[in-house]
From TrEMBL:
Species of the source: Nocardia cerradoensis
Gene Ontology biological process terms from the UniProt entry: transmembrane transport
Protein name per UniProt: Putative aliphatic sulfonates transport permease protein SsuC
UniProt keyword list: Cell membrane, Membrane, Transmembrane, Transmembrane helix, Transport
Source organism, top-level taxon: Bacteria
Compartments, record wording: Cell membrane
Gene: ssuC_5
Phosphoprotein among keywords: no
Taxonomic lineage from the root: Bacteria, Bacillati, Actinomycetota, Actinomycetes, Mycobacteriales
Entries under SUPFAM superfamilies matching the protein: MetI-like (SSF161098)
C-alpha cells in the first residue's frame, strides 16, 4: 500500500545521521598533483628496489651498478666531457633522421590515405616492410651507405618513417564522412575540404605516430652507432661495457633515457598547442 503524508516513516525508511552528512570533498591539492605524487612514489620504490638488489648481493655490482654510483658516473661524465661530448652527435643524427621521416611519412601518408586505390596498392607492401626487424636490415644499410653518417641517419629514417606513415594513412582515411558531406553540402570545393576539413581533423590522430617515431629514433640510433663510428651515445655505452665500466655504461643508458623524456615532453607541448581547437570542441 502506498505511503501517505499522514503515515509515519518506517525505521528502515527514516533518514540516518550518515545520510544527513554531506560527502567529504576531495583534497584539491591531491586532486591537482595526483599523477605527480604517485609518480614520485613509484620512482622512489623503483630506486629502492634497484639499490637493494645490488646491495644485498642478489646481482653483482660487476653487472649492475647502484643508483648512486650510476648518478655519480653520469655527473662526472658531464663534468669532464666524456659523456657530454657523446650526446650531441647522437641527438644531431636522431633529429636529422626524424625530420626526414616526418616530412616523408606525413606527405606520403596523406597522399595514400586520400585515395582508396593507393591504400589497396600499398597494403601488401606496407604489411611486409613494417614487420621487418631493424637489426636484420642493418647489413643492408651498411652495404648501401657504408659505416659513415649516411647509414646511421638512414637507419633512423627507416625506424621513424613507418609509425608516422601508418598513422597518417589511418588518420586521413578515417576522417568522418559526416564532416565531408557537410562541407560538400555547403558548396566547398575539393581543395578547401582537403585543407580546411581533412587535414585539421586528421592531425590529432597523426601525433601519436610522431611521438612513437621520436622514441624509435633513439632506439634505432644506438643500434646504428654500434655498426661503427667515433662518437655517439651508443658507442659510449658499448665502450664502457667492453671495459667493464659498469657505472659509466648505465650512466650512458640513463642519459639516453633522459634525452628521450625531454624530446617526448617537447612533442607533448607541440601536440597540446596544435590540437587545442579540438579540446575546445570536446571539453564539457
Amino acid at each position: 500500500m502506498a505511503t501517505t503524508i499522514s503515515e509515519p516513516l518506517r525505521d528502515s525508511e527514516a533518514p540516518t545521521d550518515r545520510d544527513l552528512v554531506p560527502p567529504k570533498a576531495p583534497n584539491p591539492w591531491l586532486a591537482k598533483f595526483d599523477r605527480l605524487l604517485y609518480g614520485v612514489i613509484g620512482l622512489g620504490l623503483f630506486l629502492l628496489l634497484w639499490w637493494w638488489v645490488v646491495a644485498s648481493g642478489q646481482v653483482s655490482d660487476q653487472y649492475l651498478s647502484t643508483p648512486q654510483d650510476t648518478f655519480r658516473a653520469f655527473v662526472d661524465g658531464l663534468s669532464d666531457g666524456t659523456l657530454g661530448s657523446q650526446i650531441w652527435p647522437s641527438v644531431q643524427r636522431a633529429v636529422i633522421g626524424f625530420v626526414i621521416a616526418l616530412v616523408l611519412g606525413v606527405a606520403l601518408g596523406i597522399l595514400v590515405g586520400s585515395f582508396r586505390i593507393f591504400q589497396k596498392l600499398a597494403e601488401p607492401v606496407l604489411l611486409f616492410f613494417r614487420n621487418l626487424s631493424l637489426l636484420a636490415l642493418l647489413p643492408v644499410f651498411v652495404l648501401f651507405f657504408g659505416i659513415g653518417e649516411e647509414s646511421k641517419i638512414a637507419i633512423v629514417v627507416w625506424a621513424c618513417f613507418w609509425p608516422i606513415f601508418v598513422n597518417a594513412v589511418s588518420a586521413v582515411s578515417g576522417v568522418e564522412r559526416l564532416l565531408l558531406n557537410a562541407a560538400r553540402t555547403l558548396g566547398a570545393g575539393r581543395f578547401y575540404i582537403f585543407t580546411q576539413v581533412v587535414l585539421p581533423a586528421a592531425f590529432p590522430a597523426i601525433f601519436p605516430g610522431i611521438r612513437l617515431a621520436a622514441a624509435n629514433a633513439f632506439t634505432a640510433l644506438v643500434a646504428a652507432e654500434l655498426v661503427g663510428g667515433a662518437q655517439g651515445i651508443g658507442i659510449y655505452i658499448n665502450t664502457a661495457s667492453l671495459r667493464y665500466q659498469t657505472p659509466q655504461m648505465y650512466a650512458g643508458i640513463f642519459a639516453l633515457g633522459l634525452v628521450g623524456i625531454i624530446v617526448n615532453a617537447i612533442l607533448t607541448v607541440v601536440e597540446w598547442r596544435v590540437t587545442s581547437w579540438q579540446r575546445g570542441l570536446t571539453s564539457k
